[in-house]
Amino acid sequence: MKKYLLDLTVKSVERIHERYVLIKLTDDKQLPEMQPGQFVEIRVDGSPTTFLRRPISINFVDQAQNELWLLVAAVGDGTRRLAQLQAGDTLNCLLPLGHGFTMPAFTSERFLLVGGGVGVAPLLYMGAEMHRQGNEPTFLLGARTAKDLLMLDIFKRYGRVCVTTEDGSEGEKGFVTNHSLLLKEQFSRIATCGPTPMMKAVARYARQSNTECEVSLENLMACGLGACLCCVEKTTEGNLCVCKEGPVFNIRKLLWQD
Question: Would you say the pTM of this structure is higher than 0.85?
Fold first, then answer.
């Protein structure tokens, strides 16, 4: 897929949580085609300590409004600078990068999309694209508390939403792999993104239930093009760059230890 280096215009910046902002970008030309699970490398201007671009998952693409949404966790100097952007600012973006999730081949396929924390970001666009194609996914979203659940109202537009919180303040208490849904229902495929321990737990469940599963890895990335080798992951095919060969991998290709 062709890559573009674009100066996109910030349409809005919405603080949806004390740590997260939703940045909506647009352009005077039609935005390039992007696939669920791909990401963007953003140049951070105005931050004296941020020398490398920041990789951000594609959260959503609104084709009608010609918008690209990025869900950003403001946790470091670079991302805090991104959170301070205002409407009308320009953001230099390299996109779309990486390989995304496998989309359903048939509308009868039952997909479970499992996310935790900011890892829910790429699952929104995947669910929206599935819905557009006539397939309704099930979302299983986890967080520490109810206030940490992100964009629930938007997720509900595209499929069934099940929730866990560690303190039981919303949905079922516990981790996503504790949800009763996993005992009651069987799915054709699972796609997951979030903290590594969560993804490993989901992968164990998938293996035990003989369910195809893809995970979106969040290894540290710099170039986004497979040149710097800082995001290498050991796989059954040798060492692969997550930014180029991923970030989405089938769990059968990974050498994760239980």
Answer: yes
159 near 138, Cβ under 8 Å?
yes
Tokens representing 162?
A: 């099940």
Q: Which residues of 117-126 are buried (b: 16+ CB within 10 A; e: fewer)?
A: bbbbbbbbbb
Mean pLDDT of 210-234: 90
Sign of CA dihedral 114, 119, 122, 128: positive
Sign of CA dihedral 48, 230, 61, 114: negative
Phi, psi of 204 (to 5 degrees): -60, -45
Q: How far apart are CA 249 and CA 216, in angstroms?
A: 6
Distance CA 103, CA 58 (A): 16
The per-residue pLDDT for 229 is 86
Q: Which two tokens stand for residue 218?
A: 């969040």
